């Protein structure tokens, strides 16, 4: 019991670890991919978001600088602001008003001043004054910035940006940005300059949203790396550290003052200004850290769910197998100790093997039945009763092409000669099951009642006439028979028909050819040749006469009536005396009576009288047709009875001789005067068992009876039933019953 538990536990853990492995491998791979993709995607999104913000600041600043450039260009070409107009005492007031109007159009400039180099005065929105007054009293430039600014006013021939520190009490406006343009713009020899004064905090208001509530630094450098402005939230990063990385276009992570910073920089295409942000990396990628935590929690949850589901699946998968194992253990106790040690799957595998074995046995039975179906189908075609089922033909390996068909019969002689030919006949029947050559294909079937083999031949070669192809096929068939047997049988050949449904006519004709007297001398006789042998033009055709006789013998009512109609028509068409016509009619009657007596059928005097009592050929035909129907019905009934008689004789012989060691299929076939192949198929078809199986069942029943009812030894009992190999019988008995004969006797006696 403990071993079974161990096996059960082992099988369960096999399922568990298998499902766990199936879950973990894709789970780990997918989780890693998901983690990397999510983190990288968010990292890219964070970088992209900060880059977009910096681009927005750059574009907004460029827009304002472009606005100042446009105002400078307009001032350059304004006629009211020419050197003459501003220096004229009568028009300088107009110039001041015009500067005020331009100043209003600028959204970031605190003030603007216009200076012509031929004059020491500057013109502002407030009025006219000297340069010294402007830089000393209006804004209080530092000494260093005064000189640089004054120099710019006199020598600048292109836009110049200057960062100017204010002195004095201007702490809240301690820094200004002066943006100076030459006037006229783009002139290599300008007459003066126009300068826009912008507060640093105005620029800072543009870049302040870039940081929001986060710590960090934002810097704007001029094209020559001069710091124009900056904002700082938290710890300030030195400008010298930042300027070295201002030219990089990638996100850079660098350790600054013991802290890790992420830097983004970009340059304006308009004025060459450089924009740089420096944020603590932990803050820069703060959302990524949150994402990592979320992903770890989600992955842990999924892992827990997956583990639970793995346990559930393992139990669910194991439970039906265990139930099936318990069922097999109860219903099918294992006798084999090696099998009893196997686990549940091993036991189920053993059961499956048994199912496969039984299936193979069933397939074997189907294969055994196939020849019976084939022979029955061919016989129905010969009788004109088969449907043209192409699918059934294909399953039975029978392939007919719609070209030409005829029937030939290989006859083995009369009944008294059967024993002499039996051995060779059994050799020939398998050879003629299917004969194929370049001229056609023939399918043979044994004719039990006619002691021969009927073959339906399908001609497939159309290069020559059908008659020549027929002759070539027969020549090769005879060579085939002579090559494999010592027989030289008589072959009757029917006429060629173009439809498979008319093959029964050819069968009747072949039967007539075989029984025609000349067939005793020739090995091949064609039905068409019968008409050439002694036929008189004053009489009806001899071949029709032979066909009529054979159709009666075969019980084919349809062909018999067709042939009778041709014979009557032949008589009607001939111009002869009434007496000769009457003689020919009586000859037909005589032909019928002679055939009936040859077949040993009962024909009453009344029927003969009614047949002979006719007043016209048409009345004779009517009387004969009525008689044909009765004769054919009786012939077919006799065939069925003969079939039953063969079965009764066979079973009687087996039940009488099954205890004899001389009993064999060959001896039974010889006794019943049929071929071994026919008897083998007949036995299986009628009883459902092969000859050997049927005899074995009888012998098994007799052995069981003697084991229970007698005290004879097992050896004596085995010899009594005609089995000479005692050891082999005991082995087969055990395979069948699961017990040896001795165990069976003991068990049965104990029960009784």
Question: Which percent band covers the strand fraction?
Answer: 5-15%
User: Care to count the β-strands?
Assistant: 17
- Which regions have little confidence, pLDDT < 50, spanning 5+ residues? 1-7
> Mind summarizing the main beta sheet?
6 strands, antiparallel
- Side by side, the strands of the main sheet go 3-2-1-6-5-4
What would you call the quaternary organization? single chain
Gross morphology is elongated
Q: Helix segment count?
A: 27
- Give the integer mean of the pLDDT values: 78
Q: Considering DSSP H and I runs of 4 or more, what fraction of the residues is helical?
A: 55-70%
Count of individual domains: 6
List keywords for this structure.
single chain; 752 residues; alpha+beta; Beta-Lactamase; 6 domains; 6-stranded antiparallel beta sheet; 6-stranded mixed beta sheet; 14% strand; disordered N terminus
What is the compact description of this entry?
It is built from 27 helices and 17 strands. The chain is of the alpha+beta class. It folds into six domains: 2-49 and 296-326; 77-205, Beta-Lactamase, CATH 3.30.450; 211-284, Beta-Lactamase, CATH 3.30.450; 333-530; 536-642, no CATH class; 658-751, Orthogonal Bundle (Arc Repressor Mutant, subunit A).
List the helices and strands and how they pair.
Layout: H1 2-76, H2 83-87, H3 92-105, E1 109-116, E2 121-124, E3 128-130, H4 131-138, H5 143-155, E4 160-165, E5 175-183, E6 192-199, H6 200-207, E7 216-221, E8 227-233, H7 239-243, E9 252-256, E10 259-267, E11 274-280, H8 281-284, H9 286-331, H10 337-340, H11 344-383, H12 390-395, E12 404-411, H13 418-431, E13 434-437, E14 440-447, E15 452-459, H14 466-484, E16 490-493, H15 503-515, E17 524-526, H16 527-530, H17 542-554, H18 557-573, H19 578-598, H20 605-612, H21 617-657, H22 665-672, H23 676-687, H24 691-709, H25 714-720, H26 726-737, H27 741-751
Parallel strand pairs: 16-17
Antiparallel strand pairs: 1-2, 1-6, 2-3, 4-5, 5-6, 7-8, 7-11, 9-10, 10-11, 12-15, 12-16, 13-14, 14-15
Helix pairs in contact: 1-9, 9-11, 11-23, 15-17, 17-18, 17-19, 18-21, 20-21, 22-23
